[in-house]
Amino acid sequence: MNISINGSVLEGGGQILRNSVTLSALSGKAIHIHQIRNGRKPPGLKNQHRTGLQLAAEIASAKLTGATNGSTEIEFTPGALKTPGDFVADSVTAGSTTLLLQIALPLLLFASQPSKTPSRLTLKGGTNATHAPQIDYTENVFLPFVRRFFGIRTELQVNRRGYYPKGGGEVLFSVTPLSQCLKSFGLLERGNVRCIKGIAHFAKLPGHIGPSMVDGAKKLLSVRLAEDSSSSIPIEIQSRRERNDNTVGAGSGVVLWAELEGGGIIGGSAVGTKGIDASLLGEKAAQDLLRGLDAGGCVDEWLEDQIIIFMALAEGDSAILCGKGELQLHTRTAIWVAEQLTEARFNTEQLESGHTIIRCKGIGYRPSASSDIPC
Ligand SMILES: Nc1ncnc2c1ncn2[C@@H]1O[C@H](COP(=O)(O)OP(=O)(O)OP(=O)(O)O)[C@@H](O)[C@H]1O
């Protein structure tokens, strides 16, 4: 019988769908998801979600029903995971390529073990949108983190940026299948900030936009770091103008990240909107980063939810120190989904300092055909 997943629980967004389908494909358990994206207006599948479902169905040889735009109900019956290969998904609009990666990455890691041949995943759509990781965040925050702590090896190449609303971007991921279970990890010491880096990107806009975004971000960061007597922290933000003939629409954005002595990474970002002052955009990204740094965790509020699925699949006990205050709704939702579809168990501990530690006993996932994979 299908496992029923209520898509309106907690955050009620697309992440429930992505994590549920990925875990269904890995566990071989058929699922029925209803009330999809009930927490969003309008609810139901958008291009990006439908494309992600179709991509997962292809990789997992699954039977998929109900995956049309606007649909609030789907059924996903997984088959065998494909061997590493070439996969292409196109969300047609500016639908986020990085959210397509969220659904596909765990599947490609476990594609037909043991094999050292990487899968090539070409994702088309938006690369720098709001309410999703910008591709520069995925490249400089998410991927380095999962490489360092879970042993996940990927290469990323941005062939073309795709800005909202036209999209048209293209990114290529090369994903090396794991030759062992995902590693568990403990990261409870934040340490000082080693350096702050960033990218201010733009296309089809006047040339001064890039340096203005950089100045806006640097000014605010310098003032704040000086107040905290941390003015010796190096800040390196690049201005990157995209070639006009290699971008469909105009757009801009800033992604910043702070590398911590303990190995954690904190990101902050902002996406340009029509008419916004470039320097202000840089400041907004800096404010986002400072908010993440002030929270005092080893990961920012976004990375927090994006690593939950890997903690669930990893072998044994993982622990991560998160920022002060309540856990993000996205994080609590990811935990809920992982516990519905796997035997992984999470618990959270609120410290006197206000920080939260998430602990997880992961399942040490291996595909059933590959019980010889060491953990
Ligand atoms: N500024 C950001 N930086 C990094 N990651 C982000 C940022 N904003 C959102 N995300 C990530 O994007 C994902 C969004 O999940 P959500 O459930 O909101 O998806 P969704 O409903 O598909 O989104 P949408 O309604 O925008 O299509 C989460 O994993 C979240 O961590």
From TrEMBL:
Q: Which reaction does it catalyse?
A: a 3'-end 3'-phospho-ribonucleotide-RNA + ATP = a 3'-end 2',3'-cyclophospho-ribonucleotide-RNA + AMP + diphosphate
Transmembrane ranges, per UniProt, are none
Going by the record, the broad EC class of this enzyme is ligase
Per UniProt, where does ATP bind?
Answer: 102
One GO CC annotation, please?
A: nucleus
The alphabetical list of record keywords is: ATP-binding, Ligase, Nucleotide-binding
- Catalytic machinery residues: 330
Enumerate the spans annotated as RNA 3'-terminal phosphate cyclase domain.
10-347
Matching entries from PROSITE patterns are given as:
RTC (PS01287)
- Check the record and name the Gene3D superfamilies matching this protein: RNA 3'-terminal phosphate cyclase domain, RNA 3'-terminal phosphate cyclase, insert domain
- Domain spans labelled RNA 3'-terminal phosphate cyclase insert: 188-293
Whether Cell membrane counts among this entry's keywords is: no
Q: What is its EC number?
A: 6.5.1.4
Q: Which SUPFAM superfamilies match?
A: EPT/RTPC-like (SSF55205), RNA 3'-terminal phosphate cyclase, RPTC, insert domain (SSF52913)
Per its UniProt record, what InterPro entries does this chain match?
RNA3'-term_phos_cycl_insert (IPR013791), RNA3'_phos_cyclase_dom (IPR023797), RNA3'_phos_cyclase_dom_sf (IPR037136), RNA3'_term_phos_cyc (IPR000228), RNA3'_term_phos_cyc_type_1 (IPR017770), RNA3'_term_phos_cycl-like_CS (IPR020719), RNA3'P_cycl/enolpyr_Trfase_a/b (IPR013792), RPTC_insert (IPR036553)
Cite a single GO MF annotation. ATP binding
**What does the sequence similarity comment in the record state about its family?**
Belongs to the RNA 3'-terminal cyclase family. Type 1 subfamily.
Name it: RNA 3'-terminal-phosphate cyclase (ATP)
Which lineage? Eukaryota, Fungi, Dikarya, Basidiomycota, Agaricomycotina
